[in-house]
């Protein structure tokens, strides 16, 4: 299958830090379809060879295990092309169409690795130039809008040019192997389904923790914040995959229909429940991995009076028969104690314990990063001669050991799916819009509240109020157990 893959924003950080290395890995693994061309477009004037040199230099910053040899890069570089484009000029889109039509590839993927405010103008110009035929797909990188109104406007323009099946809204978390294993865990095994409901599960925690700060991206992050950056997309997508009903088939729309039902079932926020069930924080100076780090207000390009949240913890419920009354806790933040993403499913305790002094809730821990795997926490006899003495044990599955061959990275997987037209791991517009509807009352309540975010020391696990949030239900966060 021949393909043309076009990157708008071809010299930007996302393209050279994430997308080009992912494409090279697909090429190295022999998974990139033959007969492909990769075109980068940007405002700079440069030749194909100059762009290839630019990418080769940037590859020096890639993890050494994923860095190409000179011979590998020379072969990969033959796929790379460059074209100067001013995204506001219709004649430049006409020139791009001529470049695409000259070969007539089976599939054309247009990846918008630009700021989202450019999405509408790019899509309108693509439509005017006729670059929206049935063999064309457009990939939209997050964030898709800043709020519900902007998301609706972006989607309105996109839908006026492309069919829903042609518009691929990318969330790189969905490309992670561990996230894909959520589907396998839920719907490929009979073991958990009878237990996957309110009668057996006490609560579910979803944590996406980062040890890094905002770095040099302070101006961008300060306009975004943790709720928009991580909860509205990544965390809610994980929640839908954990809570969704079994789809009738593995078809993309069957899966996305069930995810949408979960989003519509989330308990809506009011100003009162935002104050009670949502904690926002902002990191102060502290130490991470033994190294002193500045507070958020001292970061580059951050206003000294910023009220931007770098931490969010919240409690919600899925209001349907399967999950009624089960609390879901979502938590994300920067400058936390470790880089860690996991889902912890805590099961209810046995109704009548017969072993005195041995209480331990069974838990299923789904680790997403930095390593991915499964842990099942149980109680077992010590074998010490006294059968009344039980100890916690865990069954630990490390996916890297279980599948020793090199595994496909998130962007590599999603780029290959975009080329092949596999839509399962892309977000549909109604899902994305419903997620915005759910978070908007939180954003509005914060905008009306002059109270600054709660401070927390870098290297910790957020404000004390986050622990109090779960303690109301008699729970603790995973690292406190």
UniProtKB/TrEMBL annotation:
Pathway: Carbohydrate degradation; pentose phosphate pathway; D-ribulose 5-phosphate from D-glucose 6-phosphate (oxidative stage): step 1/3. Coiled coil: none annotated. It comes from the Bacteria. Its EC number is 1.1.1.49. GO terms for cellular component: cytosol. One of its GO terms (biological process) is pentose-phosphate shunt, oxidative branch. NADP(+) binds at residues 43, 86-87, 142. Residues 183-477 form the Glucose-6-phosphate dehydrogenase C-terminal domain. One of its GO terms (molecular function) is glucose-6-phosphate dehydrogenase activity. Pfam families: G6PD_C, G6PD_N. InterPro entries: G6P_DH, G6P_DH_C, G6P_DH_NAD-bd, NAD(P)-bd_dom_sf. Keywords: Carbohydrate metabolism, Glucose metabolism, NADP, Oxidoreductase. Residues 6-181 form the Glucose-6-phosphate dehydrogenase NAD-binding domain. It catalyses: D-glucose 6-phosphate + NADP(+) = 6-phospho-D-glucono-1,5-lactone + NADPH + H(+). Substrate binds at residues 172, 176, 210, 229, 334. The active site is at 234 (proton acceptor). Catalyzes the oxidation of glucose 6-phosphate to 6-phosphogluconolactone. Belongs to the glucose-6-phosphate dehydrogenase family. NCBIfam families: PRK12853.1-3, zwf. This is Glucose-6-phosphate 1-dehydrogenase. It comes from Rubrivivax albus. The gene is zwf.
């Amino acid at each position: 299958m021949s393909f043309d893959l076009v990157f708008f924003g071809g010299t930007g950080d996302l393209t050279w830090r994430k997308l080009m290395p992912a494409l090279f890995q697909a090429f190295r693994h022999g998974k990139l379809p033959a007969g492909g061309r990769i075109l980068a477009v940007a405002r700079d004037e440069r030749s194909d060879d100059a762009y290839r040199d630019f990418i080769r230099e940037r590859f020096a910053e890639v993890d050494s295990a994923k860095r190409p040899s000179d011979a590998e890069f020379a072969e990969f570089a033959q796929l790379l092309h460059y074209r100067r484009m001013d995204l506001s000029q219709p004649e430049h889109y006409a020139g791009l169409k001529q470049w695409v039509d000259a070969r007539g590839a089976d599939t054309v993927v247009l990846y918008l690795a630009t700021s989202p405010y450019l999405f509408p103008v790019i899509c309108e110009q693509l439509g005017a130039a006729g670059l929206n035929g049935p063999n064309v797909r457009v990939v939209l990188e997050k964030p898709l809008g800043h709020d519900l109104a902007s998301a609706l406007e972006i989607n309105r323009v996109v839908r006026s040019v492309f069919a829903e099946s042609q518009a691929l809204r990318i969330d790189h978390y969905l490309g992670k192997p561990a996230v894909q294993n959520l589907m396998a865990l839920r719907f490929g095994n009979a073991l958990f389904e009878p237990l996957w409901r309110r009668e057996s599960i006490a609560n579910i925690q979803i944590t996406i923790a980062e040890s890094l700060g905002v770095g040099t991206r302070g101006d961008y992050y300060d306009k975004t914040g943790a709720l928009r950056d991580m909860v509205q997309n990544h965390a809610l997508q994980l929640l839908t995959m954990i809570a969704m009903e079994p789809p009738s088939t593995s078809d993309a729309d069957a899966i996305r229909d069930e995810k949408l039902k979960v989003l519509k079932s989330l308990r809506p926020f009011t100003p009162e429940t935002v104050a009670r069930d949502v904690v926002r924080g902002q990191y102060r100076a502290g130490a991470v991995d033994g190294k002193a780090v500045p507070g958020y207000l001292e970061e580059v390009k951050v206003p000294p009076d910023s009220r931007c949240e770098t931490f969010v913890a919240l409690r919600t419920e899925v209001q349907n028969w399967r999950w009624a009354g089960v609390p879901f806790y979502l938590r994300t933040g920067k400058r936390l104690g470790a880089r860690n993403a996991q889902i912890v499913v805590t099961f209810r305790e046995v109704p009548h314990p017969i072993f005195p002094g041995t209480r331990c809730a069974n838990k299923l821990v789904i680790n997403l990063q930095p390593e991915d795997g499964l842990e099942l926490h149980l109680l077992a006899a010590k074998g010490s001669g006294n059968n009344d003495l039980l100890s916690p044990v865990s069954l630990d599955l490390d996916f890297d050991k279980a599948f020793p061959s090199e595994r496909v990275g998130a962007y590599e997987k999603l780029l290959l799916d975009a080329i092949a037209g596999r839509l399962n791991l892309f977000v549909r517009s109604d899902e994305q819009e419903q997620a915005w509807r759910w978070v908007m009352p939180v954003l509005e309540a914060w905008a009306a509240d002059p109270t600054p975010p709660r401070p927390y020391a870098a290297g910790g696990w957020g404000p004390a109020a986050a622990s109090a949030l779960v303690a109301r239900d008699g729970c603790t966060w995973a690292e406190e157990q």
